[in-house]
TrEMBL record:
One of its GO terms (cellular component) is membrane. The chain crosses the membrane at residues 16-39, 63-83, 106-126, 147-174, 194-216, 228-250, 270-290. Belongs to the SAT4 family. Residues 57-290 form the Rhodopsin domain. This is Rhodopsin domain-containing protein. The keyword Transmembrane applies. Keywords: Membrane, Transmembrane, Transmembrane helix.
């Protein structure tokens, strides 16, 4: 490889600042997302502690989410190292300043970026599919559960294949980045074909995973407004599909450009933005639970005290007299409560809280529970 003896005329051109800014923004976005996600989980735990809900708060979707976050930050660290080693500047500048070894060091950083990128995307999709599985515990459709399991297996196998293809794209492995190894002493796959195929399968699986939310949310027993809100939240994943498609659009130019260090900057920006958006989207259903921070838990649970009490339905608007707790017949009180709920049978004030907490209907019935919030007011008479 020829080493330039002087800096090229365009040596001042750089994209390192924009690459740094986008990577830092991605780190901040994911950090805020994680804080909000697990604040939402804390809200659900707090409600569960006062008797508002039951079931598992954490699930496999949280496990895959944590893995996605860890590998995402690994990706960002590798991107910063790649920037330090020349990404965003012209390859002649890298060769002039650092020689062939400098270019090999740059390639090594890109190699690590590719491994973390493919792992992160896989973990995000598996997190979303795990959330679908939790929702489908209360839906009697065996077909939907089978479809989700099938897509889960496809995504898992695709992720494993992509990561292994990155790690073992050349033999010996160091040939993937070491430009000093002669061509007749190494064997490598067609890297151009791999990256194009990888990008295409990424777009396809992204679209499949997020479009699955439509047949999954549709049969849930909740009012239309809440159902549309939940569906819109999950379909925000379309942004992840868009970022993946944009990245795919840059791949042909990147693979044919001999100025690899400069050409890699823009696709790498999208490689950071895509998983950052994916982590945000996959966390949106959990983040919705933070709305309980602005609700007084006392209004959603039964209090205690002497005298008469008034049970007020938040949906029906009616008042039902409850007997003195100390001296009343508990059977009568239970009957009053039952009558109150039966009077509201036609009102769909369902809570998607159960979608996250894992309470999906009575055992064996395959139905979604409906919950109606009641407010108890006490007065002395």
């Amino acid at each position: 490889m020829d080493i330039p003896t002087e800096l090229p005329a365009n040596a001042g051109e750089t994209q390192t600042y924009s690459a740094c800014a986008i990577t830092i923004a991605g780190c901040i976005l994911v950090g805020i997302t994680i804080v909000l996600r697990y604040l939402g989980r804390w809200c659900l735990k707090r409600r569960q502690d006062i008797g508002k809900g039951k079931g598992d708060i954490f699930g496999m979707d949280d496990v895959f989410n944590i893995l996605a976050v860890m590998t995402f930050y690994g990706l960002c660290i590798a991107v910063f190292i790649a920037i330090d080693r020349g990404m965003g500047t012209h390859v002649e500048v890298v060769l002039f300043k650092r020689g062939s070894k400098g270019l090999s060091d740059y390639n090594q950083a890109i190699f690590v970026c590719a491994a973390f990128y493919n792992t992160t995307l896989g973990m995000i999709k598996l997190s979303v599919l795990s959330l679908y599985r939790r929702i489908l515990r209360g839906v009697p459709s065996q077909t939907l559960r089978t479809v989700v399991w099938a897509v889960f297996a496809i995504v898992a196998c695709n992720t494993l294949a992509n990561v292994l293809s990155v790690l073992f794209q050349c033999w010996p492995i160091t040939a993937a980045w070491d430009v000093l190894i002669p061509a007749d002493e190494k064997r490598c796959i067609d890297v151009n074909a791999f990256y194009l195929g990888n990008a295409i399968t990424g777009v396809t699986t992204d679209a499949t995973v997020y479009l699955l939310s439509i047949p999954i949310v549709k049969p849930l027993q909740m009012d239309n407004k809440t159902k549309l809100q939940l569906l819109a939240t999950m379909l925000i994943g379309g942004f992840a599909v868009v970022t993946s498609a944009v990245r795919l659009g840059f791949m042909p130019a990147l693979l044919s450009d001999p100025d690899t260090t400069m050409a890699m900057a823009v696709p790498m920006d999208w490689s950071v933005a895509e998983p950052a958006v994916g982590i945000l989207v996959s966390s949106m259903p959990a983040i919705r639970a933070i709305r309980y921070l602005w609700r007084d838990p006392a209004l959603n649970s039964y209090g205690s005290g002497a005298g008469h009490s008034t049970l007020k339905s938040r949906t029906g608007g009616g008042h039902i007299q409850l007997y003195d707790i100390k001296g009343s017949d508990t059977t009568g009180m239970a009957k009053s409560t039952s009558d109150a709920e039966s009077g509201r049978a036609g009102n769909n004030n369902d809570s998607e809280e159960h979608l996250v907490m894992g309470s999906y209907g009575m055992k064996g019935l395959g139905a979604i529970n409906r919950t109606t919030e009641l407010e108890v007011k006490y007065s002395s008479k």
